[in-house]
Every structure is written in structure tokens, then in C-alpha cells.
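Q: I'm writing up a methods section and want to include an example of the input and output format. Could you take the sequence below and give the corresponding predicted C-alpha cells, formatted cleanly so I can copy it straight into the document?
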Amino acid sequence: MLTFFRFGVVLLAGLFLCCPLYAQYGEQPAAEIGVGVGVAHYFGDLNATTKLNRPAQAATLFFRKNLGQYIAARTSLTYAQLGFADRYNTQNEVMRSRNLDFTSAVWEVAFQGDFNFFRFVPGDPSASFTPYITLGAGLFGYNPYTELQGERYYFRELPVGTEGQNSPLYPARKMYGTTALSIPFGGGVKYALYGGRMNIAFEVLHRFTNTDYLDDVSSTYVDPAAFPKPPAGVSVAQLLSDRSGELGITPIGIPGRERGNGSRQKDQFVTALLTLSFNLSTYRCPTAD
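A: Here is the clean output for your methods example:
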């Protein structure tokens, strides 16, 4: 994420230095380009509460086209590090004893519409602040993984998934993909700086998604016979399917028992970002006569 953020800072600095007068002329900027950093949080089968108790890093690059003083269209590239573990569910013994966890980097491309509550004209001191709301659609990539005995395992790379995906015993369970759709919505506040050349904003975006496998947990435990048998011991997929035994208790992974919350509610995630953007003016710099 640090490289991603540095690229954004260098991009903004280059625009600021190479176009020192471009944003000073004209009252209504045509567009803006910006970068943001902050935190992300996951909600799903492992974290079924609304607590923001395990945030991780997030960053974004965006381009916003102003369609007037109240409306704008935006495209963005956002990175978010997501993850959670049942050991954090200290108030729910059933979930804690399940002992599952995941981590995943998420890259999202989104298109959104922004609506300002107040007239926003960065070059006008009387219209340099506004709260706003935003709604859009996005496509994101993800690939959840976990660690077992010091080794990292990506769930999708297992011959049989932790919930029987790709097993002939469960033909209806297909392995999930690495891309999904998101519906980002939220809001924020923004303020124009340096006579309208730059804007600073704080924004919270919540994403509904169409996947229940952001965390690799969705349906039920499966019959151990669904997993391939190595020459010795137990397969990695079977060990990752039911990790309750690692706590020294009787394994809880009875075939057919609920492992996740099914497809009743898809996984979600949220970002809270502080952004800085550079205004691109509607008008060209004046030329000498």
C-alpha cells in the first residue's frame, strides 16, 4: 500500500508543480484528481456485528468530473486490506470455538455519482465547504488466505474447497471466483484549500457485495470423505475446514452443521478515508498578447 500511496503523492505533486496557474483561473473547476488514505473493515460470517474492532489499511486514487456545482461523476481505484478471525468474537463462544480466520487484499474499480448538499465552488470563499453523499457500482478482486503451521494457503488453490467445492460428493458447490460486484454508498465532507487549488475531504463508504466468500465461509461443514486423502495424515483442506480442534476441544465440524450464515446475507466492507485532491480548471491559462 505504501508504494500505491507514494505514486498518488508524486502524481499530485507533479500536477501541482507543472500547472501552477492552471487552477487559478475560472470559478468552477472542470475536474479534480486525488489520493486518499485511511482504514478498511470487513463484515460477514466471521464478523457478524457492527463493531469496528479490527480495521486495516486502505488507500485510493480517484478522478472526479464536476457536472455543476452540486453534481459530479467519479471513477476510483481503491485498495483495502481485509481480514478477521473468530478469536476476536470474545462475546460469542460458538463463533470463537469455530476458530476460523482469513485475510485478503481487495482492489476495487468503481464508478460513482456525488451530490453536494451545498453549492461547491472551490474558487469562491463563500462556497468552499459542503457535505455530500455518493452512490455507485464497482468491480473488485479478492483472494482470501490463511496460515497453517507457518505456511500460507490461498483457499481457492486447494484441490477441494473448505466447504466441499470441486468435490464429486457436492456437485452443486462450485469454487467461487476472485472477482465480485460492489455497491459503494456513503458520504463525507470536503473543503477547498489554497484559494481553490486543492480540496481536502473525509469520506466513509460502505460496500454491499454479491459474494458470500470474501472470507471463504458461507454454508455448512462437509463430510470428511469429500477431501482428498494424502499418503499420510489429513489433507490441508480438511484441516482448514474445521479448525476447532486446534483449541483442544472436540471438533465441532459435523457434516451438515452450519459453518457460515449461508447466503442470507452477503459479505460487506467499509472504508474511511482522508483524501486530498488537485482541481483542474475549466479555463486555459491566459496567453500574453
